[in-house]
Amino acid sequence: MELQQDPTLLWFIGLYALLMIGIGVFMSKKVSGTEDFVLAGKSLGPFVLMGTLLATWTGSGSISGGETSMAFSYGIIPSFMLMVPTLFGIIMLYIVAPKIRAFGKYTVSGILEAKYGKSARNIASVIIILAYVGIVSYQMKGFGFILNLTTGMTVETGTMIGAGLIIFLAMIGGLRSVSQTDALSGFLMVGGLLITVPTIFIIAGGWGEIVQNVPESHMSNTGGLSTIQLLGYLLPSLFLLLGDQNMYQRLASSKSDQSSKKAQIGWLIAMIVISPAISLIAFASRSLFPGIDPGMALMATTTVMPVAIGGILLAAAASFIITTGNSYLLSAATNLTYDIYRNYINPKASDEKQLRITKGFIVLLGILAFVIITYFPSVLAVQMYAYTVYGAGITPAVLAVFFWKRVTAAGGISSMLAGVTSTLVWEVVLQKPFDLNSVVIAVPVAILFLIIVTLSTERHSSDLSKSA
Predict the structure, then answer these.
(1) Distance from CA of residue 447 to its chain's centroid?
(2) pTM exceeding 0.90
(3) For the chain: N or C, fewer Cβ within 10 A?
(4) Residue 41 above 90 pLDDT?
(5) Is 2.40.128.50 the CATH classification of the domain at 7-379?
(6) DSSP letter at 349?
(7) Residues 6+ apart with CB under 8 A from 69
(8) Which residues on adjacent β-strands are paired with residue 44?
């Protein structure tokens, strides 16, 4: 089937953008200080919290990479498998959430400092900013891609519009406004996907017709990938989610532990609906549009559906991309303010000053994200890189804070350094040997350093105490 762009779909994007800006401006008037801006005054109920968890996690990584690219490039079963790490990660966060709230920190770096010292906080801040700016950048590019594919707007123009919306919505009201737009976007996406799945299957001629039009390997368990290559796609999202500062901040912003638990159960159920729906739509797209870019598989379907349904899906996808982008941008700016500016530049800064500085950092990091996206060949490439930098550099060390009392400062810090270094060497210096994503190397290296260095330094400390 020939792909035909439909400029009328821009109306749906325009209406969505106006609605988000209106909500952002309205909620910004309720921001009274930095805790309001960063943690929404710890006032989020289960409904809004569920929506913001859902919308923050499912962005361009799923719409233009993740399940979409996997279903198109390797088949339906590998794409379904991408749901498993997310569900496992949500269950783990459900267990850890009360501990996260008990720490009462604005950033993951603050949690790490409490266990490992100031050096750990500094290293973590750099890792988080490095990873989160990458995540924000591919949200911007993903927005540009979907506007180009569906409406004919150039990728460059669409990316600039996406960057502007992401930066503005993050800056105008922080989490106080972002959480509200996230919640609306989350439920819009669930509805859009539920409508789209049966519609696109009818247009594609049904399951039998779709299967006949895809490569035979697309119906196998691994889609032609080796087991270790498949793990290279499954593990990054798991290790990002388990230590994701964005999720930690949202859980810390809930009204109570009970609200947090209800929200996470709702998030789990929503992901069981959303993730397979994205996979099925992209798989049908593989049958209809075999020659398109894999990352555009989901969005291509908007051009062959009735305008109303296609427009709803387009607006829903755009909403997820924008909300994920502004959430990660806000989180990265928070690190710059609380871990660097307040600690080293102006420790006596007033609350009002910190709020202004955070907004300034949002703009600066947003511009940086817009600049660096030009250096990555695809959304999936930068997604895997950013996830692994964070997942290997932060997650083993932060999980040890909650689950391994014996872990030492040396063990935590060495794990963080080893995780990031091995990721950069594998991705940048060695250029991904054997076509393996760096997660299969970097995460085991980070965990080994955590264990070995902890045991050796723990033993050393014990020997010193005995000799004394």
Answers:
(1) 22
(2) no
(3) C
(4) no
(5) no
(6) -
(7) 282, 294, 295, 297, 378, 379, 380
(8) 254
